[in-house]
Protein: Cytochrome bc1 complex Rieske iron-sulfur subunit
Amino acid sequence: MSKTTDVTVPHPEGDLEHFQDPGIPEHRHRMADTDPKADKRAERQVVVLFTISVIGTIVALWAYFAVRPDGTIGGVRASTMTLGIAIFFALAGIGVGAIHWAKTLMSDHEVVEDRHTTRSPDDVREIAVQKLADGIKDSGIGRRGVLKGVVVSALALFPLTIAVPLISSVGGDWNVGTFRTTLWKKGTRLTYDPTGRPIKASDVTIGSAVHVIPEVSDEYRQTGEWISEKAKALVLMVRLDPRDFKPFAKGKENWTYDGIIAFSKICTHVGCPVALYEQQTHHLLCPCHQSTFDVADGAKVVFGPAKRPLPQLPITVDSEGYLVAQDGFDQPIGPSYWERLR
Structure:
């Protein structure tokens, strides 16, 4: 029950006005509150939702061990899709089940409590504990044995979808030294991502930004190795007016071709894809944490948490006018804590 009080508020013109506290609106009973059949039906629905979560967890564990990537893109896709869908149902069953339970079975009476000091007296704390106990009793969990069992099962099993992959990966390949090298090497053609079509220097206009991957065979593009190697070799290439470049670092004077310059697309902060190019300022922006790199000044950091420039890919053209790499990146790609001496 709430008590009605008069509240005084200042009037804009200086007078005082009074209004009555409207209190809590009249409680409206739900079907489950008045109809035993509706109550039982709602309980069954909640049980089904949590059962879906249990099944989703079991399928996720099965998929992790049974539907393993076989080294092909199709195999990786099937493994990822199966595992993802199963975990979705495991999580969705818990979330939707909890919401439906709260909406249909738990008490929905609105109450008002006066605000007190942070530390309540002992007798008040005892009352609060009793109210928690009453709330548990009111939720019906004690007398709904099937519901209690399926809720406990769903909550207990779901963490396995995360714990099992983590535990099974212990002892795996954690060698970050693999980030020192990529597929880029002398003579590798630059191609459009994702088509793999080689790029001619004459096709790149001033002000444009092109997403680039190294040229590989069609057979290699179907392998699982290509997926991880492509992720390391992603490049963003931009063409500027050569007059916009700031003085190049010593030894890098010939790493561009007619205003075309290429950098690793992997942010040196935490590895997000740097893909936003601002043509007027020649800045590259990482969308994750707003690290900003100046393309005209060797992709140096001008803002944000990144600690070093984007690694540059030295480029030139071959005899047919196609853009090719002069060598690999000038430094290890990715976040700074992956950097190692060559």
